[in-house]
From TrEMBL:
Keyword vocabulary terms for this entry: Transferase
Keyword Oxidoreductase: no
One Gene Ontology molecular-function label: acyltransferase activity, transferring groups other than amino-acyl groups
Protein name per the record: Acetyltransferase
Length: 473
């Protein structure tokens, strides 16, 4: 028996008191045994009395040995504070390594898509390979193809696991054409819930269709081509009513007769994705033109009340009347071309298919300012036009702040404005956003890009939403 049972300040503690007591007990037991032996040995039944307890002791020892072999490897119950002997005798270096086993608990979310053979056991082999890397499969969608099946995973993997290692293991397990990218908490929503949410957004606002398609299909470029271009010329090539799917490009018939082109060069579209996108477009076509009718009433510094609201193609006549009241210089700064062609752009700009347009109108209902947020492929453009008599009253800045707020809500990474270096009003309005700006000058044309980074997204959203709460009807 060891007399070292614990350590204090790194030095063993010897229990000499316990040793003295144990020695005294041993001497006392020897004296008792000697007395009993003398008493029994001289009696007539002494040998029998000694054999009986000896037999009982042998049986008890055998039972204890069998019990110890059967239950000796059971884990501690945790009812007492005693630690296993091996842990209590661990050295400082071993004890110092114990906490490190629980420190690395970070994980990363990944979206992965791979093609496997359409045969029994192929998916099981892939899942087994992922389990070997301690990767948790949070969700799985299957996209059947003519040959093989595209499996789309949402994975939770150890934080130190690299994408290249994931791709290598999947390839060894039979996956082909593997594509992987980081995911975030928004991807934790299951596919039916996400599709229903996108359908709801599209039903409430026709301008949401391009954004809904982008969120449905991932990173892609979406372009809306009108049936008759704003500057004249031939329209887009004819597309069947049911649309067309060509590997990494899908073309869908827009409700107004144009074409919606969706391109994703890094990954081919599947028939399942094509059917979902077509269903959203068909929903938009059945509901017809629509925009939210909410409006805000604001008071200008000089005391005039103005109304800010969303407008669409139904406001085309009022927008053209505003054009007639604008000077040639104002129209030239806005459209960067012949003033006579300005009216031709309005049908395109007011269509919710190509973005969102908000207008400022007076108490009499006359439109005196227009602000456009235009979907330009995977980029976003902002543009302003304020009637001459209403300039320098803060209308342009108010429109721009609201447009950027809409861009933030839509998840845009940046917005850009195309103007001229002499347009000091537009430059001042962009600077007034308080966002990081990039400037690029090409042949007298100034392009100002405002970056909506994650670091400034929340403050911008709060400031812009706060500005829009004043006097809301």
């Amino acid at each position: 028996m060891s007399d070292v049972t614990r350590a204090r300040n790194g030095r063993p503690v010897h229990h000499w008191r316990r040793n003295v007591v144990q020695l005294a007990a041993l001497l006392t037991a020897a004296a008792v045994v000697d007395g009993v032996t003398n008493l029994v040995g001289h009696g007539p039944v002494g040998p029998a009395l000694l054999l009986v307890p000896a037999t009982v002791l042998v049986a008890a020892a055998g039972f204890h040995s069998w019990w110890a072999r059967r239950h000796g490897h059971a884990p501690p119950t945790g009812d007492t504070g005693a630690r296993p002997r091996s842990e209590s005798q661990a050295g400082p270096s071993e004890q110092s390594r114990e906490p490190s086993a629980t420190v690395s608990t970070e994980s990363a979310l990944w979206r992965m898509r791979t093609t496997v053979q359409d045969e029994p056991g192929s998916l099981a082999a892939l899942c087994t390979a992922l389990a070997g890397l301690r990767v948790d499969i949070l969700s799985l969608q299957t996209h059947p193809l003519a040959e093989g099946t595209v499996d789309e995973f949402l994975l939770r993997a150890p934080g130190g696991l690299a994408a290249a290692e994931l791709t290598r293991v999947v390839s060894v397990a039979g996956g082909a054409g593997t594509w992987i990218e980081r995911a975030d908490a928004h991807d934790l929503v299951d596919a039916p819930t996400r599709v229903l949410g996108l359908a709801t957004r599209t039903a409430l606002d026709a301008a949401e269709l391009p954004l809904a398609l982008r969120q449905l299909l991932g990173r892609c470029t979406i372009r809306s081509l009108p049936a008759v271009p704003a500057g004249g010329g031939r329209g887009p090539a004819a597309v069947p009513v049911e649309g067309a799917l060509e590997d990494t490009v899908m073309r869908l018939r827009a409700p107004e007769g144009g074409v919606i082109t969706v391109e994703r060069p890094y990954l081919p579209f599947t028939p399942t994705e094509f059917a979902r996108a077509r269903a959203l477009v068909e929903l938009d076509a059945r509901l017809g033109p629509r925009v939210p009718r909410s409006q805000d009433v604001l008071t200008l510094p000089e005391g005039n009340d103005i109304t800010v609201r969303r407008v669409d193609i139904g406001d085309l006549r009022s927008a053209k009347e505003m054009h007639e009241r604008c000077s040639a210089r104002t129209l030239g700064m806005r459209y960067h071309g012949p003033v006579g062609d300005a009216d031709r752009y309005l049908s395109h700009l007011l269509s919710p298919r190509f973005g969102r347009t908000i207008a400022v109108q007076t108490a009499s209902g006359r439109i005196v300012g227009l602000g456009h947020l235009l979907w330009d492929g995977d980029e976003t453009e902002v543009a302003l036009l304020v009637e001459d008599a209403w300039q320098r009253r803060g209308i342009g800045g108010e429109l721009l702040r609201r447009l950027v707020g809409l861009a933030v809500e839509a998840g845009c990474e940046s917005v850009y404005a195309v103007t001229q270096s002499s347009n000091t009003g537009m430059v001042a309005a962009m600077r007034g956003l308080g966002l990081p700006l990039d400037y690029q000058v090409e042949e007298g044309t100034l392009v100002i890009t405002a970056r909506l980074d994650a670091a400034v997204e929340k403050p911008v959203a709060e400031r812009l939403s706060g500005a829009g709460e004043r006097g809301k009807d």
